[in-house]
Amino acid sequence: MQYGLLVMGAPYSSPAPHSALRFAHAVLARGHQITGVFFYHDGVHNASSLMAPPQDELNLSEAWAELSQQHGVQLDVCIAAALRRGLMSESEAQRHGKQAFNVAPPFELTGLGQLLELQQRTDRLITFA
Amino acid sequence: MATPDALLVIVRHAPHSSNWLREGLDAALVAAAFGQPVHLLFMGQGIMALLKEQGSGAPGQKATLPTIDMLEMYDIDKLWVTEGALQGMHLSADSLVGGVTMIAEQEVPGILQQHSKILNF
């Protein structure tokens, strides 16, 4: 089965992203596919490459990137929700005159249309919020 | 009642206490702009999004009522509200904006079953 995940909780303040990640690995272990993950609402914070939790805690941004690299999972981040919360790619940082950026591949800033497309393309879209 | 590929957007959060309502409505508007039929179901505190004559909230917070008023322009004309949510807050149907359809709590499972695509905010 093709699964899509919608993540709307922020790392370390909501259990949602961690649950989503565990769900993704369980689904893959059962032989299903994860087509993509869409980060919306406070979930966009998962994409921050600047998160630096203590070493004995899971770095969620790195864990998502690893999932993407190992299983070809697309990681899409809602651009409107991200910019509002101070998450931006290098090109967006330039466009907005900011000195730093914190969103880099495999995370991609994209529009809400991608969420709807993910929902159309998959058998199940599961929300973690 | 519902077209097969319609998107159901469920709103359960009041305006201003979080960004749930605004970002939920954004998702509904984008889907409608892409030509997908969209239905909205307001439950619990979510019904407060439909209170007419509401202001813009605390200073610096943008009002959400103009977005609600805009839904019709996007052909979003199914706004379901559960009677229980209204009664729970001692509100009457005439305190809400026009074009709202009241439904009984028992109708919610049927609505959920009619939609294969649901987003919950």
TrEMBL record, chain A:
Q: Where are the transmembrane segments?
A: none
EC number assigned by the record: 2.8.1.-
Q: Which InterPro entries match?
A: DsrEFH-like, Sulphur_relay_DsrE/F-like, Sulphur_relay_TusD/DsrE
Where found in the cell? Cytoplasm
The EC class name is transferase
Asked if the Swiss-Prot or TrEMBL record annotates the protein with the keyword Cytoplasm, the reply is yes
Which GO MF terms does the UniProt record name? Answer: transferase activity
Enumerate the UniProt keywords alphabetically. Cytoplasm, Transferase
What Pfam families does this protein's entry cite? DsrE
| PANTHER family per the UniProt record, alphabetical | PROTEIN YCHN, SULFURTRANSFERASE TUSD
Q: Which family does it belong to?
A: Belongs to the DsrE/TusD family.
Any idea what this protein is called? Sulfurtransferase complex subunit TusD
Q: Which organism is it from?
A: Vreelandella neptunia
Q: Write the gene name.
A: tusD
